[in-house]
Amino acid sequence: VESQEGRLPDGDKGIDHLRDIFYPKGFDDKAIVALSGAHTVGGCKLERSGFEGYWTEEPLKFDNAYFKDMLSKEYASETTAKGCPQHRNAATGTIMLISDLALLSDPAFKGHVERYAADQSAYFADFSEAWVKLQENGCSDLRDSL
C-alpha cells in the first residue's frame, strides 16, 4: 500500500525509503528510529493497510517494548491475505514490517534501537522531541502557550 503523497513510509520498504521520506522533512536517523517506536502502540488492520497484527504484546501501552522485541524475538516471513509481506513471531503472534526490521540492517539505525531497548527514558525523551517536530512540521509562527 503506497503512502499518501510520501507523508508516511511504506511498511514494505527499507532504510533508503525511510530516509527518502523523513530527511526532506528535516529528521535525522535518531528521530526516524524514535518515531518508528510509535509502533509500540496499536497495530495493523488488514482492510486499512494490507498488513495484519500488533507489534507488541501490550498494544495499548506506550513503552520501549517495540525495540526490546525487535532485538530479542525471531520473526518469520509471511504474506497477508492482501498480499503484503510482513514478519510474525510464532510464539506471540506479534509482527514486524520490513520497515521495522530494516532498522537493524543499518549500523546508525541499529545503535538507536539498542539504546532505546536498554533505556526507556532515553527513548521517551527522543520520541517527545521528534513527535513535537513532526506535529509542527510545516507550521510557522507557533507559540509555546496561548
Which residues sit in consecutive blocks of at least 5 with pLDDT less than 50?
none
Reported for the largest beta sheet, the result is: 3 strands, antiparallel
Percentage of residues assigned to helices: 40-55%
Which percent band covers the strand fraction? Answer: 5-15%
Mean pLDDT: 93
SSE series: HHEHEHEEEHHH
Radius of gyration: 15 Å
Protein architecture, described:
The chain has 146 residues and is mainly alpha-helical. Helix content is 42%, strand content 10%. It has helices at 15-22, 29-36, 46-49, 65-72, 98-101, 107-118, 120-136, and strands at residues 43-44, 53-54, 76-79, 85-88, 95-96. The strands form 2 sheets. Strands 3-4-5 form a 3-stranded antiparallel sheet. Strand 4 (85-88) and strand 5 form a beta hairpin. Helix 4 (65-72) packs across helix 6 and helix 6 (107-118) packs across helix 7 (120-136). The mean pLDDT is 93.
Summarize the structure.
With 146 residues, the chain is mainly alpha-helical. Helices cover 42% and strands 10% of the residues. The strands form two sheets. A three-stranded antiparallel sheet has the order 3-4-5. The protein has a two-stranded antiparallel ribbon with strand order 1-2.
